[in-house]
Amino acid sequence: MLKGIPTVISPKLMEVMMRMGHGDELLLADGNYPAESGDWEVVRADGLGIPELLEAILKFFPLDTFVEHNVFLMDNGKKEKPSIWREYERILKESGEDYRIKLVERMEFYDLAKGSFCVVATSERALYANIILKKGVIFPDSDR
Question: Does domain 21-134 have CATH number 3.40.1650.10?
């Protein structure tokens, strides 16, 4: 145990985030996502939902500010958007990170996810809850 690290962040997840470099992507996958079907590293977060993980991760994980979009969501193709997205928006806003969301068509999202550094397999039950975060940099003389 260490001070200041939320209990939802496992040692393995912290290690993965530390190994990631600028531009690498982290996929937080809902319980329906085929997390074990790719050539990526998988971190199990069984019993956890994505919102609580997202909030904890953003305490340590800078988003890439050198790209047009640094957060990607799987578009549900409907006018009405999943309610969990409002929760993501709130968490991202409260994190203080400069976030820019892109909605990605379902099959395009699967292709994008193939390039992920790691997939965090959660027990999130909300549909279309998958979210990809693009890692940024820590600037000199900054704690962000």
Answer: yes
